[in-house]
Design a protein that fits this description.
324 residues; mainly alpha; 2 domains; two-stranded antiparallel ribbon; 10 helices; 37% helix
């Protein structure tokens, strides 16, 4: 075997074999020209492969608009009775009653309970002005309104006699002003009572609703707060069969404070008996006025209510759980 030496390196490297490979930069020939099988290596850097030039990107505008929502499919073949609003269980007074001022059946019914109106709408002397027996405030007109400004009340307050106070009240049209304002306030009470009844899923007759309005006019806390009139009425509908007793007991127990576990009606004596007597008187007045003003209304039939029991203990069994 013949050794072939490759020069050009620092140390000659022998290459053995029948085929010799010439190593060197740019070598194109075999180190042994007699050996036609020699393979020449080429270390030239090949030309780079040409890649196609990138095409300019199509300009895309940014769109921050949300995609449209898919159309809600329409209900098909839904039974009509399933769409019946639950509010049909709850009485709804005509809208005109809120714009009739002193002539509204609401004003006359609550005014009769306040002692300022007769069932036929006639105005008692107390309609024009009277002193509140509970807190000593100046009461005006149908609803015993106490929220007139000092400036409006000044002519009345400067009068020395009851007759003169009432005369000035009429002359300055304070009754009309006070009745309009309180009817607007009562409309918000009315909406809340109906919403509470709908949430409780109970029937609310016109007389039950009118009693709730009267109670809210007398004491917004008793009429509208938690464990107020609607909550108590829902309880009584489960405990009592007589609709009028349901109303009366609901009105009475609305003055029980579930937080302090005490009666909260200092102006009414703060006992079950004294509160019930006052609420019974007002409920009877509401029934009389409604029978006169709206005799065709579907309401609780008027009748004499049961006499007040002699002691609180006689009634505790009716409202087991009302103390809480």
């Amino acid at each position: 075997m013949k050794a072939i030496f490759q020069f050009g390196l620092k140390t000659p490297v022998p290459i053995f074999g029948a085929t010799a490979i010439a190593v060197g930069w740019g070598a194109t020939a075999s180190a042994n020209p007699l050996n036609s099988n020699a393979i020449a290596l080429n270390f030239d850097v090949p030309n780079p492969v040409k890649t196609p030039s990138p095409q300019p990107a199509t300009e895309v505008g940014l769109n921050f608009e949300p995609p449209p929502f898919p159309e809600t499919p329409k209900l098909k073949d839904t039974p009509q009775h399933n769409l019946q609003p639950i509010s049909e269980k709850v009485a709804d007074f005509p809208n005109t009653w809120w714009t009739m001022g002193s002539n509204s059946p609401i004003a006359i019914a609550i005014g009769h309970a306040e002692g300022t109106r007769q069932p036929n709408g006639q105005k008692n002397p107390a309609y024009y002005w009277h002193r509140n027996p509970g807190n000593g405030a100046d009461n005006f007109v149908t609803f015993s309104y106490q929220h007139l400004s000092s400036a409006k009340k000044m002519p009345v307050m400067s009068a020395s006699t009851t007759w003169e106070k009432r005369e000035r009240s009429a002359a300055y049209q304070l009754p009309e002003i006070a009745d309009r304002r309180q009817l607007q306030r009562l409309k918000t009470f009315y909406d809340r009572l109906r919403e509470q009844a709908i949430a409780k899923d109970i029937h609310l007759s016109p007389e039950e609703l009118m009693n709730g309005l009267d109670l809210s006019n007398q004491s917004p806390n008793a009429g509208l707060n938690w464990m107020g009139y609607i909550d108590r009425l829902a309880q009584m509908k489960q405990r009592l069969d007589d609709p009028e007793e349901q109303i009366l007991e609901a009105r009475t127990w609305s003055f029980w404070n579930p937080h302090t576990h005490r009666w909260d009606a200092s102006g009414l004596g703060n006992t079950y008996n004294s509160i019930r007597r006052d609420q019974q008187r007002r409920q009877q007045a509401i029934a009389r006025a409604m029978a006169h003003q709206i005799p065709s209304v579907d309401r609780v039939s008027p009748k004499t209510l049961a006499e007040t029991p002699d002691s609180d203990r006689d009634r505790v069994a009716i409202c087991i759980g009302c103390y809480f």
